[in-house]
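Table S2 (continued). Query chain:
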Amino acid sequence: MFKNFDFIGHKKIWFTFSGLLIILSIISIILFRFNWGIDFTGGTILELGFSQPVTVEQVRDGLREDGLQTSTIQLSGNISGESGDDVIIRTRNLSSEEAQTVVGHVNDKVGGAEVKRIETVGAVIGSEVTKSTLLNVLISFGAMILYMSIRFEHRIAISAIVAICHDILMVLGVFAFFHLEVDASFLAAILTVLGYSMNESVVIFDRIRENLHTHRRTDSFATLANDSIHQTIRRSLYTLTTTLFCVASLYFFGGDTTKNFALVMLIGFISGAYSSICVASSIWVTWHEHLRSQRNEPHASKEKKVKAAKA
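Corresponding output:
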């Protein structure tokens, strides 16, 4: 399908498309901000006792009317299989009136609900852990740049990091625009996307490194990159298809609590495959072509001076 497709020849399209998506993502983040989950902001714990065993899905349906269906729900008390007499609900900050309204809706849907405890709790992650997470991501970026610089070259390392930042911005932009909840699982999914994108870039650039020794010296960097992409794209598409099959199953059939986690990986994996094949390799080729043109410019100017002198 992609046997004769010139990926590098369309680099202006990739750069324009990706640049537009990045701008839209940044605008979405600035205008709409993030919908921080209770892991970051704290929340309310409701413990309810029921006169009959209930399941998590029954309670979740009762919370749906208040838009709290993504809350963390845990069975307690006498548990038998997938049902229990007591339920602990961890959700966003609720006032006492809102909490009573939620309990009333659960009672209407499930029946026999008795309030055992209502507590307000602080953030689990908080600002300090958030800063530590960002610091760790920056350290991992530095480690990846160092690793790829040693294994390949610094231009490949920076091209791969640009592609990874592109993928993370895509995810952040979508979550900001649709005001989806950002919680602890979101951070785990982001790190998964980071690893996937890095792996895809390493596969392509490793083949480029191997082909540097086998290609003719007259071949351009664009030809070298295109041949390397054609040799690895089938493997990349197979990997993408199998991972998307699993993640899509998790998104559509995994329940409300895993939807955002799966959505991050859906967006990130698609973006990661695209950026590794089209963006990272195009950046590397453009960089090398720019360096080559700079080296050739002094020689060209000397030839012009010689010809002018002869004339």
